[in-house]
Amino acid sequence: MLSPLSYGLYHKVILESGTAASTFADHPFNLLVNGKFNQTVPAIIGMTKNGGGFFVLPFKGISPGVPGIDNGLSKTEFDNLVKGGTNWVYNQTQKVVDATIFEYTDWTNITNPLVLRQKYMDVITDALFKAPAVRSAKVFVKNNLETYFYCFDYFVSPWYPPWSGVFHGADLVYVFGRPFRKYNKSASEAEQSVEITFSKQIISRWSNFAKNGKPSADVNATNWPAYTLKDEQYISLSPSSSSIQKNMLPEKMAFWNSLVPALTETTETQPPSTGTPATMRPTGEKEATCDHDKKTENALIAVVVVLVVLVLVLVAVIWSIRRKQSNALSHTGPTANSTVALTL
Question: What are the TM regions of this chain, as residue ranges (predicted)?
Fold first, then answer.
């Protein structure tokens, strides 16, 4: 949506747990809030209910997860993960970290490891998915872009613990029809039927949106209204109880979209985080210094320069050899071997 080179290449947009977070001429979020995006196409935007679960679970070949997370977190571990994880927002300050720890600490149950685990997952979900999605949806609507907002509220898996919830990416199981393959062998026929029906509904909504701009399903499905600044309606998607909700987590959204930008003490428009949450239990040690980063940068530049010089030398050598071959051919005439060499 943000690249002018993409204009006319698509007619609908579906943003699943993702917002402006790539590299363009300006920071994508600045392009977004300044209205420098394709405003001619409708959009679906949303996320899974517990996106943060993805970042604490171990996924082979992707992430080690947080060691020992099945047993929860201590208060010290919770604090260290928040401090040592991603930059939750652009131009993050220590005030943001302190405020985040305070906001997400359950002061009535400060030592419960299972509660602290859930709170860390909530930090990730709200900071990286829900708050940016809400902020983006409001920008879309202010620019008269027809927008539909959702929260995916269902996922059943035999491989992941129930406490991980509807984590990031869980919705893809239903968007791409995996229940049709009956992947969950431990589920009963009735449970598999529920999943298949739900997957059909999601596929129908996404397909109809792609065709006519309206995320409708069958006649018995919940009607999905467009997002408005007045009511901030969104649909909570689940097999038996899809429902229309309003004003998602108003206190948490105000924290991330109003208070936190003020705490950064920079410009009014702050791009969202583009980092990755911590998956190791931090020790609190400081990161490498700026001087070290500068030395690393200089070393990389030197390596690049050397490689460029070597490439130029190689090109010159090849050119010289080809020239000699050409001169030799012009005097002796072509042979079978020389013809092959020139072809190669």
Answer: 299-321
Q: What percent of the chain has pLDDT over 70?
A: 65
Strand duo 233-237 + 43-48: pairing: unpaired
C-alpha span between 282 and 73 (Å, rounded):
12
SS3 147: strand
Strand partners, 254: none
Q: Walk across the sheet containing 147-152 and list its strands.
A: 13-16, 43-48, 147-152, 233-237, 243-246
Give the bridge partners for 44, in sequence order: 14, 148
Its pTM stands at 0.71
Per-residue DSSP letter, 162? G
Whole-angstrom Cα distance, residue 286 to residue 292? 13
Residues 44 and 14: beta-carbon distance below 8 Å: yes
- Strands 147-152 and 13-16, sheet pairing: unpaired
How high is the mean pLDDT of the chain?
79
How many Cα atoms within 13 Å fall on the side-chain side of residue 236?
14
| SS3 annotation, 59-124 | ECCCECCCCCHHHCCCHHHHHHHHHHCCCCECCCCHHHHHHHHHHCCCCCCCCCHHHHHHHHHHHH
The tokens 């529920």 sit on which residue? 194
Strands, E assignment, the chain: 13-16, 43-48, 147-152, 233-237, 243-246
Mean pLDDT, residues 279-308:
53
Residues 6+ apart with CB under 8 A from 9: none
The per-type count for the chain, helices as H runs and strands as E runs, is: 12, 5
